[in-house]
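Quick one: ABC transporter ATP-binding protein from Saccharopolyspora erythraea, structure tokens please.
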Amino acid sequence: MTGVVESAGVAAAAPAGGFAARTTGLRKTYGETVAVAGVDLAVPRGAVVGVLGPNGSGKTTTIRMLLGLTRPTAGTVEVLGHPMPDGAAHVLPGVGALVEGPGFHPFLSGRENLTRCAAVEPALATGRIRDAVADALERVGLTAAAHRRYKGYSLGMKQRLGLAAALLVPRELVVLDEPTNGLDPAGTREIRRIIADLHSVGTTVVVSSHLLSEVEATCTHVAVMTRGSLVAQGDLGELLESGRPHLVVSTADVEGGLHALRDHGIAAREEDGRLRVELTDVDPPEVIAALVHAGVGVHEARRGRAGLEDLFAQLTEEAT
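--- reply ---
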């Protein structure tokens, strides 16, 4: 998927490091309801992949099938080189996951709950449990609240404890389903930092979210889902470049520029004190020539890149 922008139904080119996870024809139905419809998802090793889509788009169901928590109706899943769910015993020790909110014993403290999780980690020696728990609590900012009972935790604190459980030992793959749910701005920044730290050491991260700003801030790749289908996936920068092309023109006479362009049948609007010119049916030289001919001074002109919000709207509109 690295270097490739693809739409649904187009096979991803294998990146140099291979894939940490991929699905082929993945489908899940519940009676007459199709939750996931023929998804071919490819997650390059070492990438931070944002699975983006509105609630009900099939993101969580897809993640559950990746982790072997839900068996597909059709299609195949491969994670860390093993088929799932049959290869779960080989795969899951190398995977940390926070899916659909954490579940812990309400009357145990945060530290006690995390200690129980650590005790069943196959890669964690008994003598290392205390230090591993302390490190994980510190990493998610829960050290001061570690003695408190879980039932008294806020939603954001519960999310942090679930993330701590996922990070008790080094992982090859970390899967986070709506990780900033319930977090305040400071907590959201901490999640971003943790994802960046994981990426810096080569860990593959899959982040499911309906928050476009979070995906744009943290991810290197994106997979866009809507109504159970994967409508696009690829390198985030390349996907943004593939969005609706436009030209951003700086001028002291925005109003005059708008009139000049409209007189030439060129679609334009004012945006943040500049001219935004859609390049669907016109080339940049024609835009500049129209402005200069009308006596409108051009201070700067640069090709604009679509924001993720614009791209998401475009992709989901095309899928309907």
